[in-house]
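Narrative of activities, Objective 1.

The group set out to show that a structural description can be obtained from nothing but a protein's sequence at a throughput compatible with the screening campaign. Below is one input-output pair from the validation batch, recorded exactly as produced.
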Amino acid sequence: MKINYDVATDSLYIDFREIQIAQSKEVSKDVNIDYAKNGSLVKINIQNASNYVDFRKMTSNIFSFRENEPLLPHDVVTTIMLDGDSMLKAWRRHTSLTQAELADRVGMTQAGIAQLERPGGIMRKATLEKLAAALEIEPQQLKEVG
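Output recorded for this entry:
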């Protein structure tokens, strides 16, 4: 199952499985449900999601994405969903570090951290591991979800 929130369009997507959609049904003004050929639920799409979901009160236990994968703290999830932050920026904010402090811990510049924090920022495996160690988390917790 994947849960994605698009800040730009205020849309929440809940994907239950990755199979072909055979039918879509509008169940209310802002909610569409997609079904497989056999009638099973595939996806729920919610437009204007902030009218229906209070993301600041959402519990993080729904964010256990895969078996044996570490959970994400609620404030990390919230800052990603509401502020559109990258995973790295959300974790840095969670640990109350400045960009400069994190840069010092991993031997980078503040500008380098700022570049990696941009959504879609690309980092090498070695950099990912250094950042995770500096933040005292597992490397997979820094990988973008979705």
